Amino acid sequence: MLDKNHHLVRAGQVFLGDKGFANKDFERSIAEDLGTHLIKPDGKDEKPRLGKLGGIRQYIESVFDTPKGRLTL
Questions:
Q1: Record's superkingdom (predicted)?
Q2: DSSP 8-state secondary structure symbol assigned to residue 50
């Protein structure tokens, strides 16, 4: 998705990912190839970096749920 839409990505942007984005090669390519930052929850086998991101996830889900309720999607 990022390869095809790279024109939408700007250096310095921050991507918020789920814990499924645990691949070190993917994190490295996001940083080196696109010049962006990937923020994701810490995995069980990783040392703590950013702490818990549950509050951010709840905020994003509430933003998506609001239009879904109004547009009956």
A1: Bacteria
A2: S
